[in-house]
Amino acid sequence: ATALAAEAEDLENHRSDHLVRLLNPNVATMKEDVLYHFNLSTGTHDFPAMFGDVKFVCVGGSPSRMNAFIRYVGAQLGLDQPGAEYPNICAGTDRYAMYKVGPVLSVSHGMGIPSISIMLHELIKLLYHARCSDVTVIRIGTSGGIGLEPGSVVITRQAVDACFKPEFEQMVLGKRVVRSTDLDEQLVQELMQCSADLSEFATVVGNTMCTLDFYEGQGRLDGAFCSYTDKDKQAYLRAAYAAGIRNIEMESSVFAAMCSACGLRAAVVCVTLLDRLEGDQITSPHEVLSEYQQRPQRLVGYFIKRSLGKA
């Protein structure tokens, strides 16, 4: 609890300059900082020159989706040249992919809490070394819906764990550390307004459950293991719905916790690929799923365009 109080005080002190801050005094004393999983280093790359103008960071699971997103945003902002290529800034590694156009950075994070957590540590340090200020970070992804039509978009109010608690728990040196998973309420409202302006697809604000697994962790009946009945599953999902949960994915809790601890405005915008009350398998045709996956991109692309006064 004392650690969290210290973090909160530290955050207030740093809000005034709007720079990205770290909760680690060790980094400032390092001669060189190697962001190993990005294949970038402060010793070999000029971070302020490469990334100093970044104001929006969008993250999502798949490298190809984040490449598609940067192309889309480039076109929307009028920054793309005909036949322009967007090189992968993390070309020396296949862990993550990173693309940039103007003030927008697009980064893949893989699947699950450990994968996005590693990426976020290095991303936050990248923004710190680049001396970025007033940065907004948005996760655009896919999820399973609860009680929503497939294709609906959920803007997350709170990320919750599998017991519906709005917290992220991690073991640090063998001790339990719990961080809050609050997201920026004003940003939620701004995104909701953008969706209303677009009026292209159903969008709701709801809580998002973040699990450690796709199968048993989300109450699926079709994994390699299943130790419960359909009745058990339905009861659990209905309890989740009653707790305000509208979708399930595997990254939002650590994303919300880390961004909030570092003073970054953050949001989670996920499309639902199916209604989990109706089934477990994703059976929609490829072209339907492909269009669904573009919905968070269109919403966040419009938000960025509007924020930059180009809408």
TrEMBL record:
The keyword Manganese does not apply. The keyword Glycosyltransferase applies. It catalyses: uridine + phosphate = alpha-D-ribose 1-phosphate + uracil; 2'-deoxyuridine + phosphate = 2-deoxy-alpha-D-ribose 1-phosphate + uracil. Phosphate binds at R95, R139, I140, G141, T142. Pathway: Pyrimidine metabolism; UMP biosynthesis via salvage pathway; uracil from uridine (phosphorylase route): step 1/1. Substrate binds at Q218, R220. Keywords: Glycosyltransferase, Transferase. GO terms for cellular component: cytosol; nucleoplasm. One of its GO terms (biological process) is UMP catabolic process. Its EC number is 2.4.2.3. Residues 55-304 form the Nucleoside phosphorylase domain. One of its GO terms (molecular function) is deoxyuridine phosphorylase activity. Catalyzes the reversible phosphorylytic cleavage of uridine to uracil and ribose-1-phosphate which can then be utilized as carbon and energy sources or in the rescue of pyrimidine bases for nucleotide synthesis. Shows broad substrate specificity and can also accept deoxyuridine and other analogous compounds. Belongs to the PNP/UDP phosphorylase family. Homodimer. This is Uridine phosphorylase. The gene is UPP1.
